[in-house]
């Protein structure tokens, strides 16, 4: 029987986080992003960025959480990163004050595909929501690729909805459409079922 849990990321997790990010992007986004972009992503460079994010977050409200599957041994299988909404969370042409101070932005929420459908994404999201509530956030936003039905389905299945904002990322001279989803942060913890 496998058990799963979520904990704050540690600096020594950065290599696994980078590995999970690459593996997930190369599977989930292979029909969304240009092949050469996915092939040229550098795991060591990503690991350095994740080390910095864990060791020196811009604020106490910036968090990186990891999902762990524990069987005969423990495996890091997913991660979530979030922080106060900034310019990256805004839609093109949206005024800086449009999102407001009580908004948190999810920058990453990934579970390695081979560990999917075991509740890790739900545990990551639930743990993140607990932190958001403690930090006083009232609303959360996340950008999802228009072609990423799995992420959109997961988020909408947990109560998120598109807020009408869209953008197109220029990825190696290819425009990739995204839409922004949002959800109210519950004021009370959801009872365990």
Structural notes for this entry:
With 193 residues, the chain is an alpha+beta fold. The chain has a domain at 3-136: Aminopeptidase (3-Layer(aba) Sandwich), CATH 3.40.630.30. It has five helices and seven strands. The protein has helices spanning 14-28, 35-39, 43-55, 120-134, 149-157; strands at residues 3-8, 63-70, 74-84, 103-111, 139-145, 161-171, 174-184. Helix 1 crosses helix 3. The longest helix has 15 residues, at 14-28. The protein is globular and about 50 Å long. The protein starts with a strand and ends in a 9-residue tail after the last strand. The mean pLDDT is 91. InterPro entries: Acyl_CoA_acyltransferase, Bact_Acetyltransf, GNAT_dom. Residues 4-182 form the N-acetyltransferase domain.
List the helices and strands and how they pair.
Elements: E1 3-8, H1 14-28, H2 35-39, H3 43-55, E2 63-70, E3 74-84, E4 103-111, H4 120-134, E5 139-145, H5 149-157, E6 161-171, E7 174-184
Parallel strand pairs: 4-5
Antiparallel strand pairs: 1-2, 2-3, 3-4, 5-7, 6-7
Helix pairs in contact: 1-3
CATH superfamily of the domain at 3-136: Gcn5-related N-acetyltransferase (GNAT)
Global geometry: globular
Q: How many DSSP E strands?
A: 7
Count of helices? 5
Protein name: GCN5-related N-acetyltransferase
Pfam families: Acetyltransf_1
Keywords: Acyltransferase, Transferase
InterPro entries: Acyl_CoA_acyltransferase, Bact_Acetyltransf, GNAT_dom
């Amino acid at each position: 029987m496998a058990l799963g849990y979520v904990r704050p990321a540690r600096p020594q997790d950065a290599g696994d986080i980078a590995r999970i990010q690459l593996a997930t992007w190369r599977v989930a986004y292979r029909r969304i992003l240009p092949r050469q972009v996915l092939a040229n992503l550098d795991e060591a460079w990503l690991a350095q960025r994740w080390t910095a994010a864990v060791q020196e977050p811009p604020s106490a409200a910036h968090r990186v959480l990891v999902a762990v599957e524990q069987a005969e041994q423990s495996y890091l299988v997913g991660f979530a990163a979030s922080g106060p909404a900034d310019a990256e969370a805004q839609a093109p042409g949206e005024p800086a004050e449009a999102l407001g101070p009580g908004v948190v932005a999810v920058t990453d929420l990934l579970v390695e595909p081979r560990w999917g459908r075991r509740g890790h994404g739900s545990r990551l999201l639930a743990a993140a929501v607990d932190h958001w509530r403690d930090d006083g956030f009232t609303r959360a936003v996340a950008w999802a690729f228009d072609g990423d039905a799995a992420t959109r389905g997961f988020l909408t299945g947990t109560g998120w909805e598109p807020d009408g904002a869209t953008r197109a990322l220029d990825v190696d001279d290819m425009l990739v459409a995204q839409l922004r989803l949002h959800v109210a942060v519950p004021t009370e913890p959801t009872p365990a079922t």
